[in-house]
Amino acid sequence: MLNPDGVVLGNYRCSLLGMDLNRHWSKPSQWAHPTIFATRNLLVLYESNPMVEVILYIDIHAHSQKTNSFLYGNPSNLENHK
Length: 82
Description:
This protein is mostly helical. It contains two helices and no strands.
């Protein structure tokens, strides 16, 4: 879980500081977004290691206006994974 402090307060996307953590992936602050900072650094480390192949990263959380199950995704070059 990347947002334990916010979830305790009933927030789905916002941290204890009231920041939407989904908006800070590109440049997370170690102080303000420690879980995002650590996760992003781990994924960057994996990406730079030729012995590790990250095939899928899943971000599961509630949506403020959507109900039931849904999926958002980014295009991928699946040729590399055949």
